[in-house]
Specification:
By secondary structure, the chain is α/β, with parallel strands linked by helices. It has a single domain (2-179), classed as Alpha-Beta Barrel (TIM Barrel). The chain has helices spanning 2-7, 22-36, 50-58, 71-77, 91-100, 110-121, 140-148, 158-161, 174-184; strands spanning 12-16, 41-45, 63-65, 83-85, 87-88, 104-107, 129-132. Strands 5-6-7 form a three-stranded parallel β-sheet. The protein has a two-stranded parallel sheet with strand order 1-2. Strand 5, helix 5 (91-100) and strand 6 (104-107) form a beta-alpha-beta unit. Helix 3 (50-58) packs parallel to helix 4 and helix 6 packs parallel to helix 7 (140-148).
Length: 190
């Protein structure tokens, strides 16, 4: 699946830390990336503690994504010049993340807050960048709505990876490569 996304033009990929085998799988993915996917930034998501952040950084993570704001994670990542992307849903959480040094905020869940929320809070935090995730559709209208309201990136998860119902085979993931090629056309150029 990562290779299919890469072939479709994706160069930033977040692996989700879920399950007891996540760290071992991530290490294998880092090795695969290093051998076959030049230029791919590989990060880890669902990081809730500084200890877990450090473990993944030592395993080769290029960036850390959290569903929460935990300033202790900023201490582990930012002092190593590693991007930390905390998840926020309220202006208070965004302010805490900003004060901890986060340059990029994960608006989560995006399907709940919506593009107009971003439009309204962005002027409050002019130095921050925003990336909605969680329930975001990969359709042109959905992506354009977010980018037009100020998103600099969009995190696509399970919606991106659902094979089309008319797909005769999902084993080769050609459908995913095509989907990634299509969505990369909607991203802002700057």
């Amino acid at each position: 699946m990562v290779r299919a996304c890469y072939n479709g033009g994706i160069r930033i990929f977040e692996f989700t830390n879920r399950g007891t085998k996540a760290l071992n799988t991530f290490k294998k993915l880092v090795d695969y990336r290093n051998k076959y996917l030049p230029g791919l930034y590989l990060g880890i998501g669902t990081i809730m503690t500084p200890e877990l952040a450090l473990e993944y950084l030592q395993s080769g993570a290029d960036f850390i994504v959290s569903p929460i704001v935990n300033p202790a994670i900023a201490e582990v990542t930012l002092k190593r010049n590693i991007l930390w992307i905390p998840g926020c849903m309220t202006p208070t959480e965004i302010s805490i993340a900003e004060n901890a040094g986060a340059p990029l905020i994960k608006l989560f869940p995006g399907s709940i807050v919506g593009p107009d929320f971003l439009k309204n809070i962005k002027p409050l935090f002019p130095s921050l960048l925003f990336m909605p995730t969680g329930g975001i559709g990969f359709e042109k209208e959905s992506l354009n709505a977010w980018f037009s309201k100020g998103a600099v990136a969009i995190g696509l998860g399970s919606n991106l990876f659902q094979a089309p119902t008319d797909s005769s085979t999902t084993d080769n993931y050609d459908w995913l490569t095509r989907r990634c090629q299509e969505i990369s056309l909607f991203a802002p150029s700057s």
